[in-house]
Amino acid sequence: MLAFIARRLLVAIPTLAVVVALSFALTRAAPGGPFDEEQALPPEIRANLEAAYGLDQPAHRQFVRYVAGLLRGDFGPSFRFRDFTVTELIAGGLPVSLTIGLAALTLALAVGIPLGAGAALARGRFLDRLVMGLAVAGISVPVFVIAPFFALVFGIWLRWLPVAGWEPGRATDLVLPVATLALPVIAYVARLTRGSLLEVLRAPWIRAARARGLPQRAVLLRHALPAALLPVVSYLGPAAAAVLAGSLVVETIFGLPGIGRHLVQGALNRDYTLVMGMVIVYAVFMILLNLLADLAYAWLDPRIRHGRRA
Amino acid sequence: MALLEIRRLAVDFTGPRRVRAVDGVDLDIGREECVAIVGESGSGKSQLLLACVGLLAANGRAQGSVRFEGRELLGAGDPAAAVRGGGIGFVFQDAGGSLTPHLRIGDQLAEAAVAVRGASWQSARADAVRMLERVQLPAAAQQCARYPHELSGGMRQRVAIALALMPRPQLLFADEPTTALDVTVQADVVALLAALCRDLGMALVLVTHDLGVVASLAARIAVMYAGRIVELADAERFLRQPRHPYGAGLLASVPTLAAAAGPMATIAGAPPAPGTAFAGCRFEPRCGRAEARCRVEDPALVAGDGGLVACHFPLDAGPQP
């Protein structure tokens, strides 16, 4: 188990190296630079700035310098947020983003799995059609439509929740962003759970469990559901990616001080170090969530735990 | 009163076409009796058993009456649920497939005793080990901590039998319990089933293709063809002299060492496709003894010479000339 985790973390190192190299190349390849503004800077000031940030040096030198910084845990200074290092910017926004991201994932599983299971058990009946109809809607409607819609309904018409904004410790600020982020994932998880559970319920060992006289509850919860959740667990990685992508939009619309807006703003401003820092943070996050998904998979399926597939 | 009384049982499957898998079966199973049901694939043997315990596929429907200790098992609201496990146990053909892959064997065994008999987990775990010993699984105590995929096919079948026995059923349905196993293991499993039924005072309904199994185990034999019982007789009588031409054909097609050199005896033709409509005898198209009457008149299952037979021209009960 520990060996497995260690191996996976070792494999993550080359993955991260590729991410760093690619994102470095791509940010430099984008036209423009961090000090291009509508009003051109005087050439001397511009030259001074570029020298201060090392941009006057050849790209490979810049890369070596950046990687050397990374190895010391230093993401470098932000080019646009003067007097802030990228590390500070990320540290400031990460708790907010992590909170809404993990809350959205948790909510998606907590709601999506029971909905999907309920739909599977009510197959072809009203509940099934209702849940699957909502699921199609949840998957099809993009986050940037859901977010303003929620803000309009719950913030302006019903006045139940703040339209946007953030004050540390005020949980009501989180409800709409988390719900918006979770909705598409809930929809997908519900569909996955339904399909998978329907398949598992046809398995011969489910019939055998029922033939043994086990009550329906036990058959469902102990025998069917753990097996039915395997595809859902596999989906955790992509789900995390969906939540990350959604958080960029959601943080902007609901005015949350997370790191999502740093990525968008950083990219628009050609804030090289900030963009790369963000990409690395997201990559680490994805790798960890995929590792978590694999661990959960092994926990659910002993055949994988034992390192072979039957 | 018989332990299990099956009356006019019919099983239909709806779908693109309505298919009648079991068509009016009457059968009694006595306490501690062992009855074998033989017949080709698709003759409705398995569906007969599944219908009794209310485990037909979702598109299947059973009509007629099945009573266990006088209690009706067919009807709305899954009345068979009350006898599943504790009343009637079930061993399936694919034993490996009847174990839940993500649960330890000991947990599955204990769960069956806890959920059905209301045993405590502690006593159920001890019981699980004893039951594994009883089905002659080597190193029973260690096996409890293992998962199904860690066992061989023969071991899995033994575990599946132990699982079916944990709720202490009075009647065990075994649906081709040896088909999926190596030939060398088949005989062991059959002997084990026989011994268990004797020791536990359990009745057994054994569905099989293997007439050799039948000979060593069953007191009575029911021959099924195209959803009907066409012959029901004492095993000893049937093996000596079957009366239905189909039963005789089945018996003749058992390979023997003496006949091993020649071509294998078979029954000409193929079983009718599911959903076929019949005017006369179902076996008539394949029957060497068929006459005009067989094409138009469906033979009833009538008594005669220590059994029942559904044939207008049954074979003689006496020793064959």
Concise description?
The complex is a heterodimer of chains A (310) and B (321). With 310 residues, chain A is mostly helical.
How would you explain this protein's 3D organization?
The complex is a heterodimer of chains A (310) and B (321). Chain A has 310 residues and is mostly helical. Chain A has a domain at 97-258: MetI-like fold (Orthogonal Bundle), CATH 1.10.3720.10. Chain A is 76% helix and 0% strand. Chain A has 13 helices and no strands. The longest helix of chain A is centred in the middle third of the chain and has 36 residues, at 86-121. Chain A is globular and about 85 Å long. The mean pLDDT of chain A is 87. Chain B has 321 residues and is of the alpha/beta class. Chain B has helices at 45-52, 105-117, 121-134, 140-143, 153-165, 183-200, 211-217, 235-240, 245-252, 292-296, and strands at 4-13, 19-29, 34-38, 60-68, 71-72, 88-91, 171-175, 203-208, 220-225, 228-234, 302-303, 307-309. Chain B has an eight-stranded mixed beta sheet, sandwiched between helices. Chain B has a four-stranded antiparallel beta sheet with strand order 2-1-4-5, covered by helices on one side. In chain B, a hairpin with a 2-residue loop joins strand 9 (220-225) and strand 10. In chain B, helix 2 (105-117) runs parallel beside helix 5 and helix 5 (153-165) packs parallel to helix 6. The longest helix of chain B has 18 residues, at 183-200. The model of chain B has no long low-confidence stretch (mean pLDDT 88). Chains A and B meet through helix 8 and helix 9 of A and helix 2 and helix 5 of B.
